[in-house]
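S1.2 Input.
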Amino acid sequence: MVSLLGENVSLQHNLVAQDITTSGMYRKSWVRIDSLYLYKSDRTNDFANTKAEYDVSCLLDCSNVKHVRYELVEFEGLACCRCKCISDDDVSLVDAEYIKQWCAHMKKDFLSFVRATCLSDFAKMVVVDYVFANTDRHINNWGFLVSNDSNEIIGMAPLFDHNQALLAIELGNSIDDLVYEPTGKSMLESAMDYFPFSEIEFCTLPVRYEKRLHRLQRSSANLSTLSAF
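S1.3 Output.
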């Protein structure tokens, strides 16, 4: 629990233990209860990042976007969000970084491979990240599900890691011109490009986010084919 609580809870284990083999800058740890859960928290006074993770999960619950579901919990007096492990005996989660390396080895263009493999799900991710101002979709914050038997890609993994979303909107900051790592273009241009292929739907959406989605609907009307990429 060192990575979550920030202190040693036992001296009976190796210095590097299985419960701290997680990546990223935020507090996190795997905890086994009835199932295996990833617990995450942050160090802000009001747990703004933790709440953002949960809020985006709730917003996506009202959509057709595949996503990891987070819930707010308290652990050892610490406000956390948690989600169930999405890997099992049959399926593994593989970060986009490793698929990109494989594409380089096979002399394939990574982005072209992603579009050919899972265009709609990738497009949904691009649109969602713009609508909810997620500025942290780096190469290890999205990935693919891979069959453990065949080692073949099943599809994109459910979206996860939204703890830096929403905050820019709350602060009134524009993210339009920020570079969106998965595409290499600005966040607005990326969202406009991919909106026509996202087939994204929300049954309900707060007004501030609905306006951002409608902006994409209007702006992407001039983009008609994938050749725009």
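S1.4 Remarks. The first strand starts at residue 27 and ends at 32.
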